[in-house]
Design brief:
By secondary structure, this protein is an alpha/beta fold. It folds into two domains: about 140 residues, 3-Layer(aba) Sandwich (Rossmann fold); about 140 residues, Aspartate/ornithine carbamoyltransferase (Rossmann fold), CATH 3.40.50. The protein contains twelve helices and nine strands. The strands form two sheets. A five-stranded parallel beta sheet has the order 7-6-5-8-9. Strands 2-1-3-4 form a four-stranded parallel beta sheet, with helices on both faces. Helix 4 links the parallel strand 3 and strand 4. Helix 3 packs across helix 4. It is globular, with a radius of gyration of 19 Å. The protein binds phosphoric acid mono(formamide)ester and norvaline. The site of norvaline has 10 residues, from helix 6.
Length: about 300
Amino acid sequence: MKKDILTLRDLSARDFEALLDLSLKLKKRQRSGIGDRTLQGKTLGLMFDKPSTRTRVSFEAAMVQLGGTPLFLNVKDTQLIRSEPIADTARVLSRYLDALAVRTYSQDLLEGLAAAASIPVINALTDLYHPCQVLSDLMTILEKKGDLENVKIAWVGDGNNVTHSWLNASAVLGLRLSLACPEGYHPKEEILNRALNDGGGRIQLTSDPHEAVRDADVIYTDVWASMGQESESLHRKKVFQPYQVDQDLVSRAKEDVIVMHCLPAHRGEEIAADVIEGPRSIVWDQAENKLHMHKAILKKLLTP
Ligand code: CP
Ligand code: NVA
């Protein structure tokens, strides 16, 4: 049966381990100049309805480096905008492509597409989740800290799509996750409660960023207004100001804390310029690892 990655709940702990292991191996192999053309003859469609720099380019480069072909489809250039049903689109694209990565607004739309498609469908970000981001972030933490189990990850800011994927990952892997989100901007209750139930007591939610980062090994933040929330930007800037990851907040975590951001970043909003450019920031390595993790995902989904 074809396998999709629509949420991190689609993966078992063993799947996570296999992807992390493979992504780290692929990175090493690339560094040593060892090529891998196992996806020769395969085509990955990338159907995107929101902007993207990293996810698009890293999936495209991953496909090319593995010998396959990426095919980018802006949703606005498809018949979807003239009301062709999503299930018809899915069935037709399944006849041309070997896998499809989709960035869109609605998780329901993505799930409808995946249900009708006969090829693997990958969530490249929806309003609700960003699973591939968190997979590559786990790879980065493993690389930097050598372990996931004993690491405390502090999420500071909006309870958004990336937060939801962190909650899912934490529930499956039993990670230690501490979230600091302002009142009214907590993660969705259903996703949070499910993670709290399954997370073995290692997930916490607070409104106090100082509490969240205490003893943290990782501080993670993301934009205050996600794609599609631009009209709320001004209001959010006021609400989220106390949640800025600045030097003071970083100094309250462990001395060797790493600071992560999935990017794009807004300096002076969710992260201070001297933090993102400072010695604790690992955001460029983090962005690079999207390439290696996307390769691992494509190999796992597209090879027997
Ligand atoms: N982190 C991330 O998904 O970046 P893009 O929006 O540029 O793809
Ligand atoms: N939460 C952000 C992530 C961007 C990669 C957004 O959805 O815009």
